[in-house]
Amino acid sequence: MKFIQYLFYLLLLCTFPFSSQPQCTVYPVNFNPEEKLTYIVSYNWFVIWAEVGEVTFSVHQSSLGNQTVYHLLGLGNTYSGWDIFFKVRDRYESWADRNTLKPYYFKRMVREGGYEIDIRYIFNRDRKYARSSYIVNRKPEVKDTIQVTDCTFDLVSAIYYARTIDYSACSPGDTIPLKILLDRQLENISIRYLGKEIIKVRKVGEFECLKLAVSLVSGTVFKGGEEMMVWITNDRNKLPVYAESPIIVGSVKVKLSSFENIRYPFTSKN
User: Fold this and answer.
1) 145-193: per-residue pLDDT in tens?
2) Which residues contact 113 (CB under 8 A, 6 or more apart)?
């Protein structure tokens, strides 16, 4: 299973906008450099639930050429006790504009079991294309040029961009698409807003959340034709705190376990 990519899907999809607002609108950034979020991943097979690994997301101020940018970093790993079954050490990185959060450069390094993949995208925002480099299991590099739109994000930058959206105009049933460059293909994602709900996350707290239903696309992780349920905080931080979903074998739950240097107080926390 593509362990870390699954979780990126999860956290990415849970933060997409629902209203009819124009895509790619520039909203005020609602996170600090040095913010760090940690999530625990639990896996269920038949009646057994086990915490198998974690993912951390962090924000850093960096430079790319002569530009000051945000370096958005996601790291995923299985716990040492599970490495004997399926060892995961994944790294996703995006260098994005500090105002629009549109990416200039994306790098992904996957190490899962005996599988290795390295992908890079260099975005030409003016000409609307991305140059990609793709290496699987140390085979010869494959290069390509991919046409993108002005509203195309990579997985990591999309998470942070979507967190800035103003959700006050949302109504149950609203949906909106957003394009993501994923595995060298442009993907359209859509979700339904289901309203508000109180969610209690063990050792973190109880939150008023926005509840979403995400339509799953059939592939190596998802069954397709089913829905993933996700909850994000109903405050200015808009942090994903909990999610659950069926996958091809079993099901997965993801929960926020810790947070550092968030920009605003958790006004949604009870």
Assistant:
1) 999 998 899 989 988 887 887 777 778 888 766 788 888 888 776 667 8
2) 86, 87, 88
